[in-house]
């Protein structure tokens, strides 16, 4: 395939960026999107130009690092996949592909297509943990009965990889889906009850401090989430928050 790539180039968060056009040829449909960018960068390096900086790690849809805005959609046109799982067969010969970083105040640009998502780490650090002893004389997991539906919902929430697609998809750049997933995975289990009140208050507070917007109720976050995290988690977090604040 021959493609035209329009890629956002920006030296750092303090300088103005711009779109730069790159023609590319010889792209196979079985290539992943990141492999296509690898081909482009090899060409740029051979010409003595600066390669396009983009984030990646596992390339298996697990780490959430490969977060790109592709033709206006987080992770591109396919559903329930990350950018590294997106294959070039999703595009046609002659297509123009616009590639940008995720746009949010709380995700400052590091360089080109890389953004700093440390704000997610700080939300997690504010309450995304349990104090239950997990070493030494641990309690057998089966000694605490857990409802099957609760266990399934908790596991589903825990599949959130913190990629930030929910933020990029939201017109308010809200982190409610991410934060609610991290709250839900503990709120549904007995091990998470010890810090339940402090957890939701601290994580919501940190989310606001980081500058994320409020939920827009449009559901774009769930649609664009590569792991299909449900909006039900936001409703659960709101209930948890109301309960925590009513306790003083």
Give a nutshell description of this structure.
This protein is of the alpha+beta class. It has 8 helices and 7 strands. Helices cover 35% and strands 11% of the residues.
Roughly what percent helix?
25-40%
Strand order of the largest sheet: 2-1-5-3-4
How far apart are the first and last residues' alpha carbons, in Å? 61 Å
Give the low-pLDDT segments: none
**Biggest sheet, in brief?**
5 strands, mixed
What oligomeric state is this? Answer: single chain
| SSE order | EEHEEEEEHHHHHHH
- Give the number of helices: 8
> Do you know the CATH topology of the largest domain?
Fumarate Reductase Iron-sulfur Protein, Chain B, domain 2
Rounded to an integer in angstroms, the radius of gyration calculated over CA atoms is 20 Å
Based on secondary structure, the structural category is alpha+beta
* Shape verdict: elongated
| Mean pLDDT over the full residue set | 94
What number of structural domains do the residues give?
2
The first-level CATH class of the largest domain is given as: Mainly Alpha
CATH architecture verdict of the largest domain: Orthogonal Bundle
Task: Output the CATH homologous superfamily of the largest domain.
Answer: Alpha-helical ferredoxin
Strand content: 5-15%
- Number of β-strand runs: 7
